[in-house]
Amino acid sequence: MSEEKEHKSGYVAVLGEPNTGKSSFINYVLNEKVSIVSHRPQTTRRSIFGIFNSPDAQLIFLDTPGIFAEERHYLDIMLRLNVKQAIADADALVVMIADKKIAEVTRYLLEQSIRSKKGFIVALNKSDKIDYDGRIYDALANMGVDNSKIVQISVKEQKNLDKLFNAILKMLPEGPNFYEDDIYTTQSMRNIVSETIREQVLLSYFNEVPHCTAVMTDEFKDKGNIVYIHSTIFVEKESQKKIIIGQNGSKIKKISTQARKEIEKLLDKKVFLELYVKLSKNWRKNPRFIKEYLDGPD
Ligand SMILES: Nc1nc2c(ncn2[C@@H]2O[C@H](COP(=O)(O)OP(=O)(O)OP(=O)(O)O)[C@@H](O)[C@H]2O)c(=O)[nH]1
Ligand SMILES: [Mg+2]
């Protein structure tokens, strides 16, 4: 009999309501920031691949957008399709919850997971501040989710993350690597740059404005010792443009400086960032714009 350890590989979709900590968990496992994180719901918009490599396994995480129960505009419809596709593509599923009860979206995701007949695990996150009691376990049992499929975690305090990781690994089939073992994301550099800028927007403004923004990068030129980047922040209304720019451009200047510093850290190079703000009227309802935005430049 062979002494060799089996090699596992597969796709793992991480699903859940907005703001439950899906991206935080994936960044932690990968020890790399593949996905932006913020305190705002619906931070993730594109499904992002984060690839975990070890000699015994390759796990390809699909970081999905947190969806809302109601579909408010075309963007929401596309995000839900994105989640459905991730479930279809995955070999194993993680449903992340950060709530003492089962919200409508969580119920939907659990139903989809059960129906898919794929292995799944429920992660109750933020246990550092949420005191999970028997009620959630009962509610999950009523849906047919056994206790053995539930794990309480805290990404913030790094509690039980190994346990969750091992439970995921157990669900994956034996198989070879799908990707070279030295890459940790399939995102293009342009997408990473756009997302880093959007993260600064999410962190810098109050109210609805950040949700009305989309960032696209149309130029990324690596000149060896300096990288030239040209990106645009799109907004839906003229009034939002004014808010993003700020008085005498003070606000956009701050965003630009912060984003540039983050990108420089990421690339380990000097960056020249040119950042524009443009109006694309009601882009969240515009299928053509959304296609270009979600599909990315590549
Ligand atoms: N207290 C606490 N906060 C956490 C924990 N995990 C993540 N967070 C915070 O929760 C917020 C949302 O985290 P994200 O990782 O962006 O959540 P997400 O599920 O990817 O959100 P969407 O992309 O909007 O669907 C951030 O402010 C995180 O810092 C945790 O274990 N405990
Ligand atoms: Mg996210």
Describe the fold and architecture:
It is built from nine helices and nine strands. It has 298 residues and is α/β, with parallel strands linked by helices. The protein folds into two domains: 8-171, Rossmann fold (3-Layer(aba) Sandwich); 189-295, K homology (KH) domain (GMP Synthetase, Chain A, domain 3). The strands form two sheets. It has a six-stranded mixed β-sheet with strand order 2-3-1-4-5-6, sandwiched between helices. It has a three-stranded mixed β-sheet with strand order 7-8-9. α4 (134-142) links the parallel β5 and β6. The mean pLDDT is 93. Magnesium ion binds at residues 22-23, 35, 43-44, 63.
Class of the largest domain in CATH?
Answer: Alpha Beta
Give the strand order of the largest sheet, numbering strands 1, 2, ... along the chain.
2-3-1-4-5-6
The secondary structure category is alpha/beta
Do you know the CATH topology of the largest domain? Rossmann fold
* Rg, nearest Å: 20 Å
For the biggest sheet, the summary is:
6 strands, mixed
β-strand percent reads 15-25%
The CATH superfamily of the largest domain is known as: P-loop containing nucleotide triphosphate hydrolases
N-to-C SSE series? Answer: EHEEHEHEHEHHEEHHEH
User: In the CATH classification, which architecture of the largest domain applies?
Assistant: 3-Layer(aba) Sandwich
* Number of continuous helical runs: 9
